[in-house]
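Incident log, structure service

09:12 report received: a user says their structure output differs between two submissions of the same chain.
09:20 pulled the input from the user's history:
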Amino acid sequence: MKARDPRPACPPPEPPPAPSLGLLVALLAWSVWPTPAEAHVVGLSYADITLEERAARVTLRVPTKGLAEHFELPVEGEPPTGAEVLAVGGDALAAFFPGKVEIINEDRACAPSPPALQPDDDPGRIRVEFAFACETPVGDDVGIYLYFFNEFGPNHSTLATIRRGQAVKEFVFTQRRTDFRWSPRLWAQAGGFLLLGVEHIFTGYDHILFLIGLMVIWRGSLNIVKIVTSFTVAHSITLILAALSVVTLPTRLVESVIALSIAYVGIENLVVKEIRRRWLVAFVFGLVHGFGFAEILREMGLPSQGLILSLLSFNVGVEIGQLVVVAACVPLIYAASRGAHQRILVRGASAAIFLMGMLWFTERALLGL
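09:34 re-ran on a clean worker, output below:
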């Protein structure tokens, strides 16, 4: 007879947690939590640039919040008014802005006068006006340079309108694109709008979270394709209509409904046992998200030359950014769906999505933030 092993039998090992659990939760947190740059200085500036025969005028409209945080000004408003910022930090700002804008004409720098600072009509901005005198007539070989992006963080952008005679061009200055040349062709302008679209989706945490909420319950790759296609078609329709001012809605209403769409998919994941036709939810709410995508284009204005090309380039940029997000999420969601902790992951992520949507709705609809 075989001797009995005196050692106690070991319990069967517990199945390891889904390898993507931590990664997906981290991705979810990344999608809703501001990056370090945003936690300090994020914003959007506007520039109105006029090129004259032997001169140039540049007017910047800069957000006060970024200035107050960068210079650590003792102001209390959220955001502080331009008058408050200038009263407390006028000397520091007067020393900061000279040299931040440069005009190069025919390889020669145009001579700047000291910039004038004053409160803007928008209480959350200040106006900075530059004047430049050029030695030779301003021609096609003129360049405009902005140099304050290191102070305002990598996600800060300046939407510029450049006028020269009857011609008008639009350009987006960023930390990676600090110079504008008048001479580039339409393809360069289109490239700027494409990049703007990509950047917009990467900083549009509400749009990203809505997509994650739709996909977090794995129903197969075909379901993902249906969701993404429906969302793309829907927001492309309203983006184009809104950007061209064919259909407009109040910004506060649009942003509030976008927040509600996030809360909706979160709670649906929690309470509905058999979720069907997610593509239809993606389409209906995608129409509203399109108005949100169009807001930045409405603020900066589309160029009169190459209008359709610029608009389509922006939309393509949004789609590229969206596909990158989906490509990053889908493998993690699939791996997690096959793990022992799939139910915990889905319910935890969905609860976080619902709470974030309600927080944004409260801020946007009730507090007007």
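09:41 both user submissions now match this output. Likely a transient worker issue. Closing.
09:42 reviewer note: The chain has two domains: 21-35+203-366, 40-154+156-185. The two ends are 80 Å apart (CA to CA).
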